[in-house]
C-alpha cells in the first residue's frame, strides 16, 4: 500500500541586497493587498452585506493594479498577490466555520510582523539556490536534500533574515510497525502523560524555571518607561525567553512522542476537540451553563497547545513507523470505574485518587483515565472498520487519506471486515 506524503523544507535564504530589497517590496505589496481587501470586507460586514470572495477580490486587485495610486502592485508577482487573496478567503471561511471555535475573523497585517509572500508555481530549485519569479536565483543554506514534487513555496522574514519554505509531495510505501501493542494515554496537568501500562511522564522542570523567569521579566518591563531604550531592551529579553520556552517545549514533545510512537503500533488518545468543547460548555458554579473560558494563565495555555501539538506529532510519527493513532470520546474517562463501569463523580476522591463507590477499585486517577481511553479504543476497534473511518475526519497535518489503518488493525491481529 502506498500513500502520498506532504512535507515542507525550510531554508535560510542568502539574498544579495537587490534581492532583499525586492523581498521587502513584495512582502509589502502582499500585505497591502491583504489589508485593502480585508478592509473592504470588514466594511461590508459592518453594513451587513455579503462579503467579497476570491473572484471578486481578484477583480478589485486588477483595478488597483491599473490605478495610478496603487500601480506599485504591478512590480510584485501577480500569482503571489492572488495567493494572498486566496489565503484571505480561507481565513474568512475559517472565521465563519462554527466547527473551528478558535478561529477568528482575519486581522490586519502590520509591517515587520510575519512579512511573507507565496508562489503557487513558477519557482525552481537547484541544490543550493531557489528561483523566485521576478526576483531571480537566490542562494540558500542547504541543510537537506529536497525530494518530491514541488507544490508551492513561501518566502518569509523572521527578524533580520529571510527564509524559504518549500512544500513537496511524494508517494511512499507504508512501513510496517515493529511493535504490535496498543496503548491508551491520559493527558494531564500534574503528569503530562499517563500510559495505560502504568508508566507516566512528568512535565519538564526546566520549563517551570523559565516560566518564573518570564514572569519576573514581565514585571520588570511594567516598571520601565514605555518605549524607552531600557524598555526596548527588556522587551527583547522577553522575546528571547519566549523563544527559549518554545524550543524547550518542542524538544520535550518530540522526544516524548518519538519514544511512545516507536514502542506502540496503536495509540489511543482522548479527542481533544471534543474534550475542550464539552469542558467549556459545562460552565462552573459562578456562571452555570455559559461558555466559560478555560482557566487562563500561561501554564494552562502552554499545556493546551502542548497536548494538541503532541497528538499531531504522534499522528505523523505513527505514519512514519506504520502505526496509527485513534481518537476516542473523552467524556467521563476520569469518573468511570475500569473494573465495574460504574460512572460517578464520587469515584474521584481527590485530584489524583480514584476509588470506586461500587466495587472499591482503587488506582491513581490519571491511570484510570488512561485505562478507560484504552478500553474505548478496544471497543472502537472491535466494532470494525466502519466506526474507525469516522475517526479519520480529523486529518493530521502532512498525511493523505490513505492512512495505514487496515495495516494497523492487522498488526494488532484484529480481523478486518
Ligand atoms: Zn467499580
List keywords for this structure.
417 residues, alpha+beta, 2 domains, 7-stranded antiparallel β-sheet, 5-stranded mixed β-sheet, disordered C terminus, binds zinc ion
What does this structure look like?
With 417 residues, the protein is of the alpha+beta class. It has 2 domains: 2-173, no CATH class; 182-202 and 264-411, no CATH class. It has 10 helices and 14 strands. It has helices at 17-46, 54-66, 78-96, 205-223, 229-263, 272-282, 298-321, 365-382, 385-390, 405-411, and strands spanning 2-14, 116-119, 124-125, 129-132, 136-141, 149-158, 161-173, 182-187, 193-195, 200-201, 266-270, 324-328, 353-355, 362-364. The chain has a 7-stranded antiparallel beta sheet with strand order 2-6-7-1-5-4-3. The protein has a 5-stranded mixed beta sheet with strand order 10-9-8-11-12, sandwiched between helices. A hairpin with a 3-residue loop joins β3 (124-125) and β4 (129-132). The chain is globular.
What is the structure about, briefly put?
44% of the residues lie in helices and 19% in strands. It has 417 residues and is an alpha+beta fold.
Strand order in space, largest sheet: 2-6-7-1-5-4-3
Mean pLDDT: 82
Task: Output the structural class.
Answer: alpha+beta
Spans where pLDDT lies below 50 across 5 or more residues: 280-298, 384-411, 413-417
List the helices and strands and how they pair.
Elements: E1 2-14, H1 17-46, H2 54-66, H3 78-96, E2 116-119, E3 124-125, E4 129-132, E5 136-141, E6 149-158, E7 161-173, E8 182-187, E9 193-195, E10 200-201, H4 205-223, H5 229-263, E11 266-270, H6 272-282, H7 298-321, E12 324-328, E13 353-355, E14 362-364, H8 365-382, H9 385-390, H10 405-411
The structure holds zinc ion (ZN).
Amino acid at each position: 500500500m502506498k500513500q502520498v506524503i506532504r512535507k515542507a523544507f525550510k531554508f535560510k535564504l542568502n539574498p544579495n541586497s537587490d534581492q532583499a530589497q525586492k523581498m521587502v517590496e513584495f512582502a509589502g505589496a502582499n500585505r497591502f493587498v491583504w489589508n485593502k481587501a480585508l478592509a473592504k470586507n470588514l466594511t461590508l460586514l459592518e453594513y451587513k452585506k455579503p462579503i467579497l470572495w476570491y473572484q471578486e477580490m481578484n477583480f478589485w486587485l486588477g483595478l488597483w493594479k491599473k490605478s495610478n495610486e496603487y500601480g506599485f502592485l504591478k512590480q510584485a508577482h501577480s500569482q503571489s498577490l492572488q495567493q494572498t487573496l486566496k489565503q484571505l478567503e480561507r481565513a474568512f471561511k475559517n472565521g465563519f466555520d462554527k466547527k473551528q471555535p478558535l478561529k477568528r475573523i482575519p486581522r490586519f497585517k502590520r509591517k515587520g510582523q510575519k512579512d511573507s509572500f507565496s508562489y503557487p508555481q513558477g519557482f525552481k530549485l537547484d541544490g543550493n539556490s531557489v528561483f523566485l519569479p521576478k526576483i531571480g536565483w537566490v542562494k540558500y543554506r542547504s541543510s537537506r536534500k529536497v525530494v518530491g514534487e514541488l507544490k508551492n513555496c513561501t518566502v518569509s522574514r523572521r527578524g533580520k533574515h529571510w527564509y524559504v519554505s518549500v512544500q513537496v509531495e511524494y508517494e511512499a510505501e507504508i512501513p510496517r510497525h515493529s511493535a504490535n501493542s496498543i496503548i491508551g494515554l491520559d493527558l494531564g496537568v500534574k503528569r503530562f502523560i499517563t500510559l495505560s501500562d502504568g508508566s507516566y511522564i512528568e512535565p519538564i522542570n526546566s520549563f517551570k524555571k523559565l516560566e518564573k523567569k518570564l514572569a519576573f521579566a514581565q514585571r520588570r518591563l511594567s516598571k520601565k518607561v514605555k518605549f524607552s531604550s531600557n524598555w526596548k531592551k527588556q522587551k527583547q529579553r522577553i522575546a528571547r525567553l519566549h523563544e527559549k520556552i518554545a524550543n524547550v517545549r518542542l524538544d520535550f514533545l518530540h522526544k516524548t512522542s518519538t519514544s511512545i510512537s516507536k514502542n506502540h503500533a496503536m495509540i489511543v488518545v482522548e479527542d481533544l476537540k471534543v474534550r475542550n468543547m464539552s469542558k467549556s460548555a459545562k460552565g462552573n458554579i459562578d456562571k452555570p451553563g455559559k461558555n466559560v473560558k478555560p482557566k487562563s494563565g500561561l501554564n494552562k495555555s502552554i499545556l493546551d497547545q502542548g497536548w494538541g501539538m503532541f497528538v499531531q506529532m504522534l499522528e505523523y510519527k505513527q505514519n512514519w513507523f506504520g502505526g496509527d493513532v485513534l481518537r476516542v470520546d473523552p467524556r467521563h474517562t476520569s469518573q468511570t470505574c475500569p473494573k465495574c463501569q460504574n460512572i460517578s463523580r464520587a469515584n474521584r476522591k481527590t485530584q489524583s485518587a480514584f476509588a470506586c463507590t461500587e466495587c472499591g477499585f482503587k488506582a491513581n486517577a490519571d491511570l484510570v483515565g488512561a485505562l478507560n481511553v484504552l478500553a474505548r479504543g478496544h471497543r472502537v476497534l472491535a466494532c470494525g472498520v466502519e466506526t474507525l473511518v469516522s475517526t479519520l475526519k480529523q486529518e493530521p497535518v502532512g498525511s493523505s487519506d490513505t492512512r495505514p489503518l487496515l495495516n494497523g488493525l492487522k498488526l494488532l491481529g484484529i480481523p478486518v471486515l
